[in-house]
From TrEMBL:
Subcellular location: Cell membrane
Annotated gene: murJ
Species of origin: Microbacterium profundi
Keywords of this entry: Cell membrane, Cell shape, Membrane, Peptidoglycan synthesis, Transmembrane, Transmembrane helix
NCBIfam families xref list: murJ_mviN
Its membrane topology: Multi-pass membrane protein
Record field: transmembrane: 21-39, 51-70, 82-108, 128-146, 158-181, 193-217, 238-260, 280-300, 321-341, 353-377, 389-412, 418-439, 459-477, 489-513
Keyword Disulfide bond part of the UniProt annotation: no
Protein name: Murein biosynthesis integral membrane protein MurJ
Length: 530
């Protein structure tokens, strides 16, 4: 499958997944409220399996599995024997961690949110956690199966399966509201049955998406069997890589703990844990649709070039991928920034709540372009089997986040704390990206990115008036007092209008100045149709 078709398939699946994911969050906000202690309690508990999964999965799988599977595919049996052993090893690892995490639920909740939660809120969060933590096993198996499929250039299932999670969750949350009502943001109103239905629904959604991926796995003709004969599968090399990626993600979780503890102090009437997660969800729409959709196929091809020692082709893919990512990501940044308030209104129960969340979203957006560059640079290290260097530049980023988040905790008023924490994370990510690029250049030599950086500057100069045009549409609608903030539906429509205006102006400028990357993007779309 070509890069164009693969990127288009991932983008289409991701777009559908993100739209249904946004609807899922809208329904959840309707059930528990956008600002309040119940929403923060659920958000903390539901984030626990995600956080642990990132430790054992995101770093280890992305950094270790994809390059190993690419190499194993060249074996006589297309790597099927290796995949059986790998799947068994992952099953045992994830199951073991899930059991330990389940029994440590009270400790984990207090580890993340004891600073600002009341005793009643901690108790509710712990009840939620017992139902949410089993998600960890299914997250892990989903990621393992999906990354293996990605490495074998089967991108569609991993991109489309999360839609089932969202559909199941939406249905379950609607049933919850039919049974118990909506906007239940008072802890005293909750009982064990309500906890079971809400948190159990969230877990059932993760189970559903994993089952869907298993179906595609079997349909692809890859044997689904367990094999405990791990000797000879290169565990020593994989363990070395996994150690560094594990340390990298553990550092990230330490940062997450400090951030959540800092945010929990604002729980109640201000933007806190749940509001920050919702702003992050909006931020992840362009990240997933653009960075993951375009970057994932490039990562597989970069891994192939690295395995075959085709350094010239690899450098060409690095430069091209960053330019294409920048072409789309800069206008997305401008459009989402212009639509920050209406987009936040979709996940808020009032205009005032939306205006409180919007600065958090704006702060996150500062790092969107750097994260696109980092995605390619970091995965190039992984393609070369180097997980130690990503650990180094992640430690630098994490240290900056830790230091300045602690400063925020003691100096920034609670009403601005969520935005300040987001800005600290974004700025630290910029430093991380610069350092990572310098270290990659030292590893493989000159990257030839001079023309790429100049292209990004051109894109930025065109994105500024595009974003201004979008913000002008927001002001013409009445701004904070206009129709775009009247309710969730108008907020969604307003965000679409603003994005359309910004996109149209940006596209016009690209045509007027005959930007060569636009032709590459158009050819990519044409190629995926062929």
């Amino acid at each position: 499958m070509g890069l164009g078709r693969a990127s288009a398939m991932i983008a289409a699946g991701t777009l559908t997944s993100r739209i249904t994911g946004l609807l899922r969050t809208v329904v959840l906000v309707a059930a528990v409220g956008s600002l309040g202690r119940v929403g923060d309690a659920f958000a903390t508990a539901n984030a626990l399996p995600n956080g642990i999964y990132q430790v054992i999965s995101a770093g280890v799988l992305t950094g270790v599995i994809v390059p190993q599977v690419v190499r194993a595919t060249a074996q006589k049996d297309s790597g099927h024997a290796f995949l059986a052993k790998l799947l068994t090893l992952g099953f045992v690892l994830v199951a073991g961690v899930t059991v330990v995490a389940f029994f440590c639920a009270p400790l984990l909740v207090r580890l993340f949110a004891s600073a600002g939660f009341t005793p009643e809120q901690l108790d509710l969060a712990t009840q939620f956690a017992y139902w949410c933590i089993p998600q960890l096993f299914f997250y892990g198996m989903f990621a393992l199966l999906g990354e293996i499929l990605n490495a074998r250039k089967m991108f569609a299932p991993y991109a489309w399966a999360p839609i089932m999670n969202n559909v199941v969750s939406i249905a379950g949350f609607l049933v919850f509201m039919m049974l118990f009502g909506s906007d239940l943001n008072e802890i005293s109103a909750w009982n064990s049955t309500m906890v079971m239905v809400l948190a159990g629904t969230a877990t059932l959604g993760i189970v559903a998406q994993t089952v869907v991926l298993i179906f595609f796995w079997r349909k692809a003709g890859i044997p689904l069997r367990l094999d405990f004969r791990w000797r000879g599968m290169g565990l020593g090399h994989m363990r070395t890589l996994a150690t560094w990626t594990l340390l990298t993600t553990l550092i990230g979780q330490l940062v997450g703990i400090v951030q959540t503890q800092t945010l929990s102090k604002a729980s109640g009437d201000h933007a806190s844990v749940f509001a920050s997660q919702n702003a992050w969800l909006v931020y992840m729409v362009p990240y997933s649709m653009i960075i993951l959709a375009i970057g994932t196929p490039y990562f597989t091809r970069i891994s192939e070039h690295a395995a075959a020692k085709r350094d010239v082709e690899l450098r060409g893919d690095i430069a091209q991928s960053i330019r294409i990512l920048g072409l789309f990501i800069l206008v997305a940044t401008a459009a989402v920034a212009a639509a920050a308030a209406p987009a936040s209104r979709v996940f808020s129960n009032s205009a005032d709540a939306a205006l409180a969340v919007a600065p958090v979203l704006l702060a996150f957006l500062v790092s969107l372009l750097p994260m696109a560059v980092l995605f390619i640079v970091q995965r190039t290290f992984y393609a070369y089997g180097d997980a130690r260097t990503p650990f180094i530049f992640t430690v630098v980023q994490a240290s900056l986040v830790l230091i300045f988040t602690i400063v925020v905790a003691f100096t920034v008023p609670v009403e601005w704390r969520a935005a300040a924490v987001a800005l600290v994370q974004a700025c630290s990510g910029i430093v991380q990206t610069v350092l990572a690029t310098i270290l990659l250049r030292r590893k493989i030599g000159p990257l030839g990115l001079g023309s790429t950086w100049r292209a990004l500057v051109r894109f930025a100069l065109m994105a500024i008036p595009a974003g201004a045009a979008g913000y002008g549409a927001y002001l013409l609608s009445g701004g904070a007092d206009g129709w775009m903030l009247q309710d969730k539906l108008w907020g969604a429509l307003g965000a679409v209008v603003i994005a359309a205006v910004a996109g149209a102006v940006y596209l016009l400028l690209l045509f007027l100045f005959r930007v060569p990357e636009l032709r590459v993007a158009i050819d990519t779309v044409r190629n995926r149709r062929s």
